[in-house]
Give the backbone structure.
Amino acid sequence: MNETIRGLLVKFGNLPVSVDQLQDDSDLYTAGLSSFASVQVMLGIEEAFDVEFPDTMLNRRSFASIAAIEGCVRLLTDREAA
Amino acid sequence: MDMQVSLLDRLFDAGLLIETGVDGLYGRSGQFEDVIAGFERLIDRFGGADGAEAIRFPPGMNRAFFEKSGYMKSFPQLAGTVHSFCGCELDHISLLKCMDEDGDWTEGQKATDIVLTPAACYPLYPTIARRGKVAQTGALYDLQSYCFRHEPSKDPARQQLFRMREYVCVGTQEHVTDFRQSWMDRGLKMMELVGLDVEIDVANDPFFGRAGRMLANNQRDQNLKFELLIPVTSSAKPTACMSFNYHQDAFGAKWELALEDGSVAHTACVGFGLERIALALFAHHGLDVKQWPEHVRTALWG
C-alpha cells in the first residue's frame, strides 16, 4: 500500500522534491503539495484502491503525510471488507 | 423561497429592478443606481486615501488569460463564454432557416477571444504581471466591473450579471493579510453607518463537484476566505455582501508576480457585491429611500 501511495504521489503530487526522500510522516504540504495536487492524489487513490472518500475525510489532514493517507485508505478498505 | 420571490416581486412592482424574462438578469432604476453610487462614494471615503491605482476593465476578459487562470478547474459551472457567428453567406442562410424553424441556431456559433469576467480582479493579475516586479512595499488596485456567473435564480441577491467593487493588494504575506484584516474592520464600520446588522464568518468558494468539496474544506481549514453576511431575503441564511480573500501565493505563482527581492508575491482582495448591498439596504430600510433613517441617508448621500 505504501508503495502504491508513493507511486501516486510521484504521478499526481507535482512535488518539487523526490518522493523517495520523504519519510512516511513528512508534512506533504511543507514538501510543496498544492490543494489541486492533493485532489488529484485523492482521485488517484480512489481509483487504485477502489474506495470512495466520504465528505468527512475530504480535508487537508487526510493528505498531510504518507502515513495519514495510508491511515485513510486502511480505514476505507476495512469498511469495504466489513 | 416564498420570501425570495416576494422581495423580487416587490422590487419589480416598485420599479427598482426591471424584469427581462431571464432569472438573475435585471435592469436597474435610477433610484437603485443612486444607492449603489452612494455606497461606492462611502467605499471611497474609507479606502480612497490608501493610494490605490484605479483601473476599470470591461465585463469581458481575454480568453487566453481566463484559460490560464484555472477558473475552469474550479468553477466550470459558473463560467460564461462569448460566441459569435463566424460563417460565410451560405452559413448565414442556414442560420436564418434554423432560427425560422426554431432549431438550435447556437450550435454553429464559434468561441471568440472574449470570456465574461467572473470576478473583477481576474483581468488584473496578467496586466500587472506584464509591468514587471512589484515594489517591496506592495501595490494596491481599485477595481469595479460587471461580472457574470451562470446561476439563474429567483433570489434577487443571486444575479447572473452584477457589479463587484474590489481592492486588490499585492505584496508580502504580512502586508496582504494586514490589508485583509483592515478591510474586515472597515466593512463592519461601513455597515454600521448604513444601519445594517452584519456578521463576519469563515467561508468557501462554490468549487465544482466532489473534488471541489475537498478544495472548499481546505479553503476553510486555512481561513483563506471570510464573508460579511447581511440578511437580505432570509435571516436564517444571510447573504454574503463582502468577501475578504487571501490567495496566498497562488496568483503570484500563476502569473509570475514577483516582488523586488525576487520572492513570489502574495495577494489578497476585498470584494463588495454592490447589488447585494443595495438589496440589503432596500430589504432592511424599505423600498422608499425617502423613508430611510436620516443617518443612513447622510452616510450615503451626505
About this structure: The longest helix of chain B spans residues 173-193. Residues 82-114 of chain B form one domain. Residues 61 and 123 of chain B are 6 Å apart (CA to CA). Chain B has a mean pLDDT of 96.
